[in-house]
Amino acid sequence: MTTWSAGPRGLFFEDLEVGWKVRTPGRTVTEADIVGFAGLSGDYTPLHTDAEYARGTMFGERIAHGLLGLAIASGLATRLGFLEETVEAFTGLEWKFRAPIRIGDTLYAEIEVAQKRPTPDGRAGFVVFNVQVRNQRGEVVQRGQWTLLVRARGAGAPQASPAASPERPSEG
């Protein structure tokens, strides 16, 4: 029996040209996101988790953790599919937190290929993306660069384990 495989959805190193741009869909930040991130990270700083405390700060209300914004941006990029099954590693990050992310803000990311450099063996390459995270008003709340190691076309895909295959031949 032949097992069908669609292959990677993501773009290969050769497909990502300097200047290539994409914009993600938006996602609204909720109180549940902030509470969940506090639990996941262990960061219960009152600015994020205590409404009374946060009211007396320069922001006047609770705001999202900065790293929650970064995590949301990463998830939004992943939703587009261009990173799926071709990215081998997230190898670098330079990041700036420019403005608060408030409960109810809708975030989206603008991503552009800034640089490319193949690995010496040619099986992959490093791609530097300029990333801006914006809110519903178009204000940049976070920005920076992500460096990813992206597989080259023809380098061969990692093989899925039999348990992960969409179809397995029956035994016996």
UniProtKB/TrEMBL annotation:
InterPro entries: HotDog_dom_sf (IPR029069), MaoC-like_dom (IPR002539), MCH/BMMD (IPR052342)
Domain MaoC-like per the UniProt entry, residue ranges: 19-118
Pfam families: MaoC_dehydratas
SUPFAM superfamilies: Thioesterase/thiol ester dehydrase-isomerase
Matches recorded under PANTHER family: BETA-METHYLMALYL-COA DEHYDRATASE, MONOAMINE OXIDASE-RELATED
Name of the protein: Acyl dehydratase
Species this chain originates from: Thermoflexus hugenholtzii JAD2
